Predict the structure.
Amino acid sequence: MAFDQTTRNRLQRFVNDARRVLEEEFTRQLQNDYGMDPNAGTVAELASLRHINDAQRETARILRDTLAHYTASGDMDATQGLDRIVREQAFTVLNRLAALRMAEARGLLVESVGNGFQAKGFQLYARLAGTGLGETGDAYRVYLFSVFDELAQDLPGLFDRYSPQGRMFPREAALLQVLNLINDADIAPLWGQDETIGWIYQYFNSKEERKAMREASQAPRNSRELAVRNQFFTPRYVVEFLVDNTLGRLWYEATQGTTTLRDRCQYLLCTPQDVFLRRFDTDDLRPGSVAALVQAGRWPDLPTFDTTEAGVQAMIEFAHCVNTYDRYANDTWGDYFQRLEPALREQRFADLSTQELWDGIFLVCRADRHGGDGSVYQERWFVATCQEIVERLKSDEPQRKAKVIAHHPVRDPRTLKLLDPACGSMHFGLYAFDLFAEIYREAWAWEKQHGPGSLQVPADVVRTEEYASKTTLAQAGKAQAAIDTEARKATPGVYAPLCQAYADEAALLRDVPRLIIEHNIYGVDIDPRAAQIASLALWLRAQRAWHDAGVKAKDRPLIGRGHVVAAIAPPAELELRQQFAATLDHLDTELFEKTLQLLKGLPEMGVLLQVERELPDLIRQVFGEHGSLFKEADMEQWQKAEARLRVALTEFAQAAKSTYQGRLFAQDALQGLRLIDLCREVFDVVVMNPPFGALAANTKDHLVKAYPRSKNDLLAIMVERGLELLRAGGRIGAITSRTCFFLSSFQKWREELVLGSAKPELMADL
């Protein structure tokens, strides 16, 4: 079913109705059971709650610790904190039930939410459990909790029942209302669509809320307003257009047009006029050489092609700028040549593309060198062919304009990184998943044809991964390390050739969904709820890939945590900071405090906080006077210190279980460290639907100072930041408004960034 306006309206009604039911239910629970009134902002003493059982008392204590954690910074009062609790609990329950419904539609889960209490999974569970779990409603709740607990192994951010966002659950009457809504026949076909969870995320906040925020203030006043104002789900065609011409384009160019993505990516703008240059060595690119002029696109400077000795030598060099052997297997180029040669000799240039013209003179040149007497270079048609190619390269006519593409090595797909810095529900990542799956398939074939080591692994990626493999235990804790270690068994060494890491193509393809999540797709969002469902969306996509391939659940590789990060505020509790500092030595204590200061403003800025720039100075401030202790470079110094902080925070959280607020403190600090790690990566592709408009009031001064060329609008800043995070030769794709390309206030941004640092290749004005 297409997501037309009528379909979206049905889904919006469902989300609005479900949110209303859940928020009313959790407000009543807070008031009646837990002594916390969201309307008045009052909280009763825990000792006064004599009407609840021990389990409810534990929940009441945890809710109070959560509220204290939310209000510790002073940026929100008790009323706002309780409103946040109600909203987060409702969103989490809705997402959990929607996730189960989507898993059912994909055949990943036995019917558990569909048909409510009559669900097949629950009916079987109830028969086995008998009457030991109480009435039907109680038994169903226990059943759902068992499903949540199983899924929490892969998706703790959403299904961990002990997370601060998931402590509450609707009572039977409210739960039945939500189940009736989720099983409405009007939206039944939507649960099989990948886009559904993204539309649920957008519709959770209503148009009326956004309108009220804008009327209250022109600029967002906090991170929630910034997130809500910019929650616009990116349409599928926009996603495909941007990913096709960034990730798809990179692979298309690396494979010199031989990829199946050429036909699969319907928005990939490539033509028969595209010309792929061969790899040049230093001698080829000597100053003034034909190869150097061609690579630089300096067509007017090319020498005259004629039958003089200098002209012949220039023609030979010109013909060899494109190496047809890189693109056509040796057993097929002969047939290709037989088709091209007659058209070349008869000068029927209109019948051939620019690439075919260039291939033709190369093939004729090669044939002459292997058995001819050199006379081909004296032929008038050969001279005419060279001249025709140059004319096409210089031509302004769209149908004749040729694009010359420099040689790029084919990369090991495990080293390709795509970032969505405002990921929302990860719609870009879901489509990129499909392209990455095909890239892995083609990479296997490429390595089989060209041999082990033919897939390039950048040196900086090797260094990063070597360090990560050494510090897995220290950084992730034993539970996560066990998952990571198990997941890496299929890939011994650091990026061993695919044919050595996997027994056969089937073994690689079985592992591809895990590889994509753990190696290729990165996302950041300032809304923790977005990170919740982005991780869910990728997990569901991986499970569907395995399901479609017939891989049974027991044979599916374990998926690690992935790379979706929520840009949340660093912990503000002074007393807990002091308690944690007592577990560290004095240098690590200073480092931790300065790191928290560095992360100030993170909820409003996300990746715009240029933490990687500040780290070297921060490390030198802390450790610089102790050079005899540490002789490593700044970044390696940071990695070692960060690993120690991760271990200490993990241990602090475990030791602080009796103080739930201590656990929240440690988790938020760890999330900040994850964001720092992500900002230190370099990405091959950045794609985004960035926030637009005015800067958040409390971060405006910082952003104006950090991005003086882009300070007019958040979208301009996001584009500049995307360029900073790109690897040399990488590509950025963004949906923007039109204003930044026309208003005079954006002139410096256009001249220095869009036309200076970058090179725009494609624009669609809608």
Observations:
- The CA atoms of residues 43 and 64 lie 8 Å apart.
- The radius of gyration is 30 Å.
- The first strand starts at residue 36 and ends at 37.
